[in-house]
Amino acid sequence: MKYRKRIGLFFLNIFFILICLLCLIPVLYALGISLNGHNDLLSSNVSLIPQNVTFDNYRCVLFEKPFFLWFKNSLILSAFTVLISILVAVPGAYALSRKRFRGRKMILNLLILLNAFPAILSMFAVYRILKPLGLINSFTGLILIYIGTMAIFGLWNMKGYFDTIPEEIEEAGEIDGAGDFQLIWKIVLPLARPSIIVTAVMILIYVWNEYIFAVTFITSSGKYTLAAGLYALQATDYTRNWPVFSAASLLVSIPVLVIFFCIQRYMTSGLTAGGVKE
Are residues 8 and 63 in the same domain? Predict the structure, then answer.
């Protein structure tokens, strides 16, 4: 029985490895294009291994295009959105998880309903709201849009995690003399750390890659985000350079990949990791 289980596990691992390799084909293809010295994406002789390897495309992105300006703008938007969304979502999620009050279910259902519609459907309404306030072509307006979307996501995501934390742990803290602030700061938040970190990173990924609102509400090239900057690289039909575009897209992905690898242990850690005394 154990031998048969090992054989099944072996073939299961092989299957998942093949799936991973299949998913890597577009990335490897983009890498091959970014290292190609010729803009021949649509030709029949393009392969995963470029014939004329060059790093000029990366040099062009980093030193001839305002890549670092786009990076700074995306970093500002991401940092403020993540910070404010988490500050709003964490206490809201805890209150909706622990407190029982009239209208609680209606609030939760309303938040789901607001988040269920595609963002593009609210484009005109958002424009009519931001225009009189002078928030078009403004980081503040874009941050408000992102917070309105991601704070609801963060609240629901962390509310589910708070539900899994046994209330007996908090009751034990109260018996030991912990006040409300100590209870939340020293017991609840450390237990919810994995959820908070993963939620923050998911918000970061959304803002980092967001394209529709960034292109629509940011009209000045000096305020372009990375997504809007990538769009600007391919904005005309006559100056498209696919190797440069591929190099830029890979460079945009690197920060998110680094952050993702850094938080892997939080994504796999369980509730008991924070609930057991050292």
Answer: no
Burial of 105 (0-12, 13-18, 19+ CB in 10 A): exposed
Q: Which two tokens stand for residue 252?
A: 């945009």
Q: What is the DSSP letter of 270?
A: -
**Residue 102 region by backbone torsions, left for phi larger than 0, else alpha for psi between -120 and 50, else beta:** beta
Condensed to tens digits (0 to 9), the pLDDT of residues 85-97 reads 999 999 888 888 8
Query: What average pLDDT does the chain have?
Result: 82
Average the pLDDT over 246-265 and give the result: 86
Helix (H, G, I), strand (E, B), or coil: what is residue 82?
helix
**Same domain membership, residue 8 and residue 144:** no
* CA dist list (Å): 3 to 6, 13, 176, 231: 5, 15, 51, 54
- Tell me the pLDDT tens digit for each residue of 197-229: 888 988 999 999 888 888 888 888 888 999 888
Q: Is the domain of 44 the same as that of 162? A: no
CB atoms within 10 A of CB 82: 22
Question: Looking at the chain, which runs of residues are DSSP E strands?
Answer: none
